[in-house]
Amino acid sequence: MYSLLKKFLFKLDAEKAHHLTTSLLRFARKMGILRIIQKLMVGKVHHQPIQVAGLTFRNKLGLAAGFDKNAEYLREMEILGFGSVEIGTVTPLGQEGNPKPRLFRLPNDTALINRMGFNNEGVEAAAFLLELYRRQHPRSKMIIGGNIGKNKVTPNEEAHEDYRKCFERLYGLVDYFVVNVSSPNTPNLRALQDKDSLRVIFQTLRNVEPELIKHTEKQRPLFVKISPDNSFEQIDDILSLVKEYNLAGIVATNTTISRDDLATSSDLVSNIGAGGLSGKPVQQRSDEVVAYIHSKDKAIVIIGVGGIQTGEDALQKINAGADLVQVYSCFIYEGPKMISRITQRIAEGILNA
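Below the sequence we write its predicted structure tokens.
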């Protein structure tokens, strides 16, 4: 069924196709037919509850940040079968992001290039929808992560305040946090992966956290999302801060600025221009980063993301050291059926381990 829909969607601008797809999902949910569609287009999702970072995930497959920027489609993703959804990236103030077009498909590489630029409605809008979701679905078993960032107009020396504002406002509403300092689409953001800059961010969040815990009665695990373009030496610096500030772990990895070894013509890639590349071309480097982190410290929780297209890809990332996995591009290229395929393969791999 999705293969027919995909032919139509891929004739549209990629961002317009995204909005159409999410609108259809919302319509189906409001009409009460999404569960029927789920049975037809997804099938049996293999839920195997697992404890990670003090949280119970109903399965290991999550939807990566970027798909549901404003916490608008949580119920839809829960019905489809994801074990978790990472909303965002959320910034203190709403912002338009970069000029359109800013999302591009590379079908020959099963990849996407995006330069969205943290387009979102702002932390208050996300908080409103999260509060609504929590009230309406108090028994929901889907884990919600909050991916937080800085506004484009905020200078790097003040970035820690943007992260603090999002952290404070969403603390009682999400189950875990991800500090995003690795997107290539906000000017100079990746410079915040520098050890001194990251230290200021983590220290700021840890300073305000005790008061937040008092009001919510539970500490939220804190992760940092890193770039696949980091050297191992840079990753070592980040790992030292993870230990120093007692972070739960690392999300590995974000999109890459590399354009190496693509099947898509270099002229087309050049015409697309700047942006982060996701999908199959990122898989090898993402797996290498996951394996490196795991080899350095097996106690660090790793959420593996990058290049997963099949259940075998997901299992490979788990075998490299990932505790959980996330997808984005795969959802675009494979459709919702991949949720059952990937969760089934993960379940088989665990049983056979």
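The chain has a mean pLDDT of 97.
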